[in-house]
Amino acid sequence: MISEKKNLILRELEEGTGAAVSATEDFSGLRAGLRIWFSDFEVKHGPVAEMRAYGLRGHRVELTFGNFSGMVLDQIQRAQLEDIQLARALIKSIRPEVEVTIADQTLTDWTINSGAFRMTAKVRDQARPLEDSAIVATCRDVIVPMMAAMAELIGYDVIDDKPANEIAPYEGAILASTVKRRERNPRNRLLCIRLHGEKCIVCGVEPQHIYGEAGSIIEVHHLEPLATLTTPRPYDPETDLVPLCPNCHRAVHTRRPIPWGTDELRKMREELHG
Q1: pLDDT at 175 over 70
Q2: Number of domains observed in the structure of the chain
């Protein structure tokens, strides 16, 4: 049963969304399933994803809101345009073979206006839907983008304990400051990879093909550095984010305050190596 894969599912969702996630078995339907929610909220106070078997060879995931989600819904309705764009892009990134529907709305301009919001995804044609590989695929391809989209709208962000412009007085010193650093947000990495793949756009290296399981080290680069923005602006993950291998990412940022452009770095490589 899917509920027996609880620990595997939680691990995949926490890694993919960057948020703490909880789950419990659900026996309310004909088939036992799993109810999944953000640990920061009780199950009745926020978005909940239910994962169940669908037919003999598939999974069904349905995202709804608990009966007492008023505060979270108010927060979502105050989301900035940038967060809305990212949330929609995450849902758009779900592979086309998965049937995704939103009650009474289209997938291009959906909004969450009330607790009646309902998003459903049906995954079909899985040879062995209860095997770990199939469970992981549904988590990564469907539940992660769904929950990550909700996290963007709610306002989850990653806290970095060390600002980039703060240097410890000596090696090993502990700095007590905290700064929000959107570029460290794992959901941005998720979007970048979904839209552009895991191949470095400068050198063409795809670390996962070289290092196997240890190769998930592709990095996300903002073409317009966040530090140079004089006023905040929404950004499009399809045009503003690109994947770079660690070497090229470090090379791009050797020029400050304006990093090298990816085209400039590619030209340098070509001049040196042909």
Answers
A1: no
A2: 2
